[in-house]
Design brief:
Helix content is 33%, strand content 27%. It is of the alpha+beta class and 102 residues long. The chain has a four-stranded antiparallel beta sheet with strand order 2-3-1-4.
Length: 102
């Protein structure tokens, strides 16, 4: 089964995240093994990402080859992360409206 990766950081702005999205372009150049990506900011500006990947190896390859170089280039703080083995994933009909947000 796949993995759930949760990343959290302070000091990442929405502008940094949008720059990262545009430079890495994961929406159009899909990372091998990526299944789902969701990012959010709380009212204090704290940043959180939840990703589902086919494997930790797929995640690590993407992070080292595509994500980290751009994060370093734009001086984006590196989030703290935790990896969990997935027990269950449920996707409901409402998920389609979030696909249109990308």
């Amino acid at each position: 089964m796949g993995i759930l990766a949760i990343f959290k950081a302070n000091g990442i702005t929405k502008e940094m995240y949008e720059t990262l999205r545009k430079e890495v372009d994961w929406e159009h150049q899909h990372p091998d093994g990526a299944v789902l990506h969701a990012a959010a900011f709380d009212n204090s500006g704290n940043f959180c990402v939840a990703d589902i990947w086919e494997s930790e190896e797929h995640l690590n390859k993407f992070v080292t080859s595509r994500l980290l170089p751009v994060m370093k280039k734009i001086y984006m703080p590196i989030p703290e992360g935790e990896i969990f083995q997935i027990n269950d994933v449920s996707a409901f009909p409402g998920i389609e409206k979030f696909r249109e947000m990308a």
